[in-house]
């Protein structure tokens, strides 16, 4: 297995790897989300629906430079407090405004309704048991979160005894709605006793990390209150896209730091398998909040290039290999996260991918758009091997 000898930016091997890295950020694919009537519910600050926007749809107008006019449905933000059954104060995705105070009010409201106590864990039941019905997933979740009571209830049923009242009520509610749900409950029983599909430890690992992710998102939103308008707009759009469009298995590791961050990386997320609990992808996020914002050129390559990413990650460490950053958000992630990402860059492990999110505020036509550029996988295996051979 390939391994770095040091996390010191002045280390000879790291310096060689850096010189063999590509200094240019290469875009693999581009997608443009447009917030207009074609998407049904307009999930933008300018709509009358704010602040309690529905879990609606967004139109994609272009994908990979080809016209691709279709609609994507949002996921419910699992970190947001419910306002009724379909409307949330945390579902908004586009801050299409130049009014600084209006933007900050929206972010502050979102932060108040975000956090671990609001986590919607029903998404886990939906994935583990492949349940498409939200009502059903929400009720199955009780059996996953109350395993001792569930085990007692299922055992009572097997022995033809009367189960505990709460178990009996919940079980009957599910099977009375549809007798076909008996098959589902047999799988739930198997899972409760540890013999179905995803292991309990794998799912519990996902939920454990989701609690910390929700806290980081809340801290991230609170810290955006002190950011500039353009920065806040871009960072917010990236966060909401990952939670409500990209998928239900993404977790924040590093967000906006209150004390600032010198390494230049805006956000780091992971994609964690809900069934196994394993990390399947690392995401490095760059966000731009206006039409005119561009990737900058640095002494270590273009922003978001492989060279720049490697240098920034190494730069997170101090001389004694602890995280150099004093930001609370970074300390949540701890140095092990950065070590794992660097390890993945030089080995054939979970991919490390880059994304650029840019809101089009300032554009005369199409200002209600969000552009997402995927930079593809950062693979530094060849750079590492060349550095080792010279």
Low-pLDDT segments, ≥5 res:
none
Largest sheet: 8 strands, mixed
Order of helices and strands: HEEEEEEHHHHHHHHEEEEEHHEEH
Helix fraction bin: 40-55%
Beta percentage is 15-25%
Mean pLDDT metric: 84
Strand order of the largest sheet: 4-3-1-13-12-9-8-7
What is the domain total for the residues?
A: 2
Straight-line N-to-C gap: 18 Å
Q: Compute the gyration radius: what is it?
A: 23 Å
Can you count the beta strands?
13
The geometry reads as: globular
**Separate helix tally:** 12
Class by SSE composition: alpha+beta
How are the SSEs ordered, and which strands pair?
Blueprint: H1 12-20, E1 29-34, E2 53-54, E3 57-63, E4 66-73, E5 82-83, E6 87-88, H2 100-112, H3 122-128, H4 134-145, H5 147-158, H6 165-177, H7 181-192, H8 200-224, H9 229-246, E7 250-254, E8 267-272, E9 279-288, E10 297-298, E11 301-302, H10 306-315, H11 328-345, E12 352-359, E13 369-377, H12 381-389
Parallel strand pairs: 9-12
Antiparallel strand pairs: 1-3, 1-13, 2-6, 3-4, 5-6, 7-8, 8-9, 10-11, 12-13
Characteristics:
AIPR protein; alpha+beta; single chain; 18% strand; 8-stranded mixed sheet; 390 residues
């Amino acid at each position: 297995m390939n391994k770095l000898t040091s996390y010191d930016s002045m280390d000879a091997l790291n310096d060689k790897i850096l010189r063999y890295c590509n200094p240019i950020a290469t875009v693999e694919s581009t997608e443009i989300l447009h917030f207009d009537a074609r998407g049904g519910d307009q999930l933008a600050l300018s709509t009358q629906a704010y602040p309690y926007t529905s879990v609606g749809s967004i139109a994609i107008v272009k994908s990979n430079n080809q016209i691709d006019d279709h609609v994507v449905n949002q996921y419910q933000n699992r970190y947001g407090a419910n306002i009724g059954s379909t409307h949330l104060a945390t579902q908004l995705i586009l801050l299409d405004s130049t009014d600084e105070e209006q933007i900050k009010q929206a972010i502050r409201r979102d932060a108040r309704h975000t956090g671990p106590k609001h986590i919607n864990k029903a998404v886990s039941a939906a994935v583990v048991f492949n349940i498409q019905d939200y009502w059903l997933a929400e009720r199955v979740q009780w059996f996953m979160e109350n395993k001792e009571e569930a085990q007692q209830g299922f055992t009572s049923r097997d022995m033809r005894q009367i189960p505990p009242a709460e178990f009996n009520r919940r079980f009957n509610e599910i099977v009375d709605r549809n007798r076909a749900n008996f098959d589902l409950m047999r799988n739930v029983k198997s899972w409760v006793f540890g013999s179905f599909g995803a292991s309990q430890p794998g799912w519990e690992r996902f939920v454990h990390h989701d609690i910390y992710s929700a806290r980081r998102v809340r801290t991230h939103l609170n810290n955006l209150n002190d950011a500039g308008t353009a920065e806040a707009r871009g960072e917010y759009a990236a966060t909401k896209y990952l939670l409500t469009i990209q998928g239900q298995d993404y977790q924040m590791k590093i967000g906006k730091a209150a004390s600032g961050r010198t390494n230049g990386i805006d956000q780091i997320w992971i994609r964690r398998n809900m069934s196994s609990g394993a990390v399947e992808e690392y995401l490095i996020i760059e966000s731009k909040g206006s039409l005119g914002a561009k990737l900058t050129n640095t002494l270590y390559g273009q922003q978001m290039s492989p060279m720049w990413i490697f240098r920034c990650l190494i730069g997170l460490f101090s001389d004694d290999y602890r995280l150099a950053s004093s930001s609370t958000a970074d300390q949540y992630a701890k140095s092990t996260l950065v070590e794992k990402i660097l390890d993945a860059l030089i080995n054939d492990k979970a991919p490390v991918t880059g994304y650029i999110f840019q809101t089009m505020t300032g554009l005369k036509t199409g200002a209600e758009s969000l552009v997402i550029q995927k930079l593809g996988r950062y693979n530094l295996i060849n750079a590492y091997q060349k550095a080792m051979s010279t």
